[in-house]
Amino acid sequence: MQNYANSTHAFYAGETDASAYTETCSKCHGTGKFISYAGRVVGNCFACAGEGSKSFKTAPETRAKAKAARAARSERNWSEFWDSLTDTERDALTWLVGEGVPANDFLLDMADKVRAKRDLTPNMLNGVVKWYAPVARRAAQHTQDRVACAVSSKFQKLVDAFNAARESGIKKPIFRAEGVTVTMGTGQKWGGFMFLEGEFGQKLGTITPSGELRARAECTDAHRATLDAIADDPFTVSKQYGKRTGNCGCCGRELTNALSIELGIGPICREKWGF
Fold first, then answer.
1. Does residue 268 share a domain with residue 172?
2. What is the largest CA-CA distance in the chain?
3. Do 219 and 168 belong together in one domain?
4. Pairing status of strand 203-207 against strand 213-215
5. Cα–Cα distance measured from residue 191 to residue 208, given in angstroms and rounded to the nearest whole number
6. Is residue 191 part of a domain?
7. Same-domain status, 168 and 269
8. How many structural domains are present in the chain?
């Protein structure tokens, strides 16, 4: 027999045949049947067309070696492709295969390509970057918002009062004033943000940890005046609210003690809020 570069050349030269490399089908394990999850036979195996075995032109070792070579080549190509990307493009592809990505056909298809380490064309890459751009802007803005007092220290007294309340064991402290209710967010995303509501539950806006007031359209001049007063002296504003309503300016409970009625805040809240 003449020497050939590989078994495929020998096959086409007529020196061997496909039956020399017949293997049991790995999908049906030789049964030739496609079995459903319920255990029922629903037809012939798609992989071997019901034969129970598959024939190859090359030996298993040769195919395994070729598969490993393809994988190495693919890895090498992907590495070169990745190195050619800008930082923004790398961030976009990292975001693409993460969580919280919009479930549309384009992004799902691109994510599959990235997971399979297949190169993206320039148009595909530009499309992913356009989807990622607003996400990156929001993330950058959120990071900037969390820098304490970077914009203003105007509401620092109110922040200190909320921190004192939490350190004293109040899990969800609430500050009440004339027409305004203030709560503070929790968790990694919203910790340090203060949320503002009107007396009828309307959303007035937020105060970021950086000290910026982001008012919504519902925030009137009267609401802004109240917020200015809170920033100057939270205790006095809470006291005025308690005297007017007869309820504690922090927990909202009815005041019954004479001193509490005079101060507009209950003894427990006075202690825990540091007023």
1. yes
2. 112
3. yes
4. antiparallel
5. 10
6. yes
7. yes
8. 3
Residue corresponding to tokens 């007023």: 275
Contact between residue 84 and residue 77 where contact means Cβ atoms under 8 Å apart = no
Residue 67 is assigned to a structural domain of this protein: no
| pLDDT greater than 80 at residue 147 | no
Both 163 and 138 in one domain: the answer is no
CA–CA gap between residue 195 and residue 237 (Å, rounded):
17
Listed in sequence order, the DSSP H helices in 47-121 are 60-83, 87-96, 105-115
The answer, yes or no, to whether residue 1 has pLDDT greater than 50, is: no
Q: Which stretches does DSSP call E strand in the chain?
A: 22-24, 33-35, 41-44, 53-55, 174-177, 180-184, 194-198, 203-207, 213-215
Read off the pLDDT of residues 32-78 as tens digits, 9 standing for 90 and up. Answer: 898 888 888 889 998 888 888 888 888 888 888 888 888 888 888 88
Nearest to 98 by CA among 61, 146, 62, 136: 136
Q: Are residues 165 and 261 in the same domain?
A: yes
Predicted confidence band of residue 5 (pLDDT cuts 50, 70, 90): low
Residue 110 and residue 116: Cα distance in Å, rounded? 10
Instruction: Name the DSSP class of 119.
Output: P
Residue-number span of the structural domain to which 45 is assigned: 1-58
Task: Examine residue 63 and state whether it is found in any structural domain, yes or no.
Answer: no
Nearest Cα to 117, choosing from 91, 69, 80? 80
CB 34 within 8 A of CB 42: yes
Q: Do residue 213 and residue 126 come from a single domain?
A: no
Is residue 5 assigned to a domain?
yes
Phi, psi (rounded to 5 degrees) for 142: -65, -40
